[in-house]
Design goal:
Blueprint: E1 2-11, E2 14-24, E3 29-33, H1 40-48, E4 55-60, E5 63-64, H2 70-75, E6 78-81, H3 93-98, H4 113-117, H5 119-123, H6 134-147, E7 152-156, H7 164-180, E8 184-189, H8 192-198, E9 201-206, E10 209-215, H9 221-228
Parallel strand pairs: 3-8, 3-9, 6-7, 7-8
Antiparallel strand pairs: 1-2, 1-4, 4-5, 9-10
Bound molecules: adenosine-5'-triphosphate and magnesium ion.
């Protein structure tokens, strides 16, 4: 289980996260919702160790990882798909997938199961990442994270700029990873409908703080929508 307890995060003097707490369980999908700029990506970056927190603790599988760097957290089983995907445009699909193996146990090879999840990637193994469509790049970014065999997968806006049919495919894969492979999944979303259909629990952020949190089917939907509309 992931347990984020009362973390504060600053950029210079400006406070970006204020006492944020949340948790994520194996086999469950946890969605973090909020308008632009409320600190969703900062929260995920803090979980991955890409930003240092000033207060609070992050515990993963019973171990305090608050002071670990991103490489150590990757080795501890945390996988991260950044907002905007950040695949390597001049590397092939195969090479992009191989970059994930640095964090995997020695001697590992690309997890062939990712091709069952995303068949299009097998077809385009030799194509350059930059030549894939946006939806295909998102699938590649998720597949690359999976190659390190994470037990916690964090995804920053996996649906951003992607067509509805590909969004459906990605939702199916995320559901399978949680339910079928018992992974803990944390995903950031702008769109409530996607989160509601997929997530077991939802955390809504407003200006660096948690405004509302709970099991998806117990949340007051109109109240959540009000917090998300500009
Ligand atoms: N590296 C940084 N240095 C300074 N300020 C930053 C940095 N990264 C983010 N911020 C600021 O922190 C706040 C939260 O940013 P963050 O990217 O976490 O928001 P977000 O909820 O992910 O937004 P979006 O929905 O647009 O992706 C914003 O005001 C942003 O300008
Ligand atoms: Mg963001």
């Amino acid at each position: 289980m992931l347990d984020v307890a009362a973390i504060d995060l600053f950029y210079g003097a400006s406070r970006c996260l204020r006492g944020v707490s949340m948790s994520a369980q194996p086999g469950k999908v946890t969605a973090v919702l909020g308008r632009n700029g409320v600190g969703k990506s900062s929260l995920l970056r803090a979980i991955m160790g890409l930003e240092r927190v000033k207060a609070g603790t992050i515990t993963w599988e019973g171990r305090d990882v608050t002071s670990l760097g991103p490489a150590e957290r990757a080795r501890a089983g945390i996988g991260y798909v950044p907002q905007g995907r950040e695949i390597f445009p001049f590397l092939t699909v195969q090479e992009n997938l191989e970059t994930a193996l640095a964090a995997a146990p020695r001697g590992s090879s690309v997890d062939s199961e990712v091709f069952d999840l995303f068949p299009i990637l097998r077809q385009f193994l030799r194509r350059r990442g930059g030549d894939l469509s946006g939806g295909q790049q998102q699938q590649l970014a998720i597949a690359r994270a999976l190659c390190a065999r994470p037990r916690l997968l964090i995804l920053d806006e996996p649906t951003e700029g992607i067509q509805p049919n590909v969004i459906k495919d990605i939702a199916k894969v995320i559901r399978h990873l949680a339910r079928g492979r018992n992974m803990a999944v944390v995903l950031v979303e702008q769109y409530y409908d996607f989160a509601r259909d997929l997530a077991d629990t939802i955390t809504v952020m407003v200006r660096g703080e948690v405004a509302m949190a709970g099991p998806t089917d117990e949340l007051d939907e109109p109240a959540v929508r009000r917090l998300l509309t500009v």
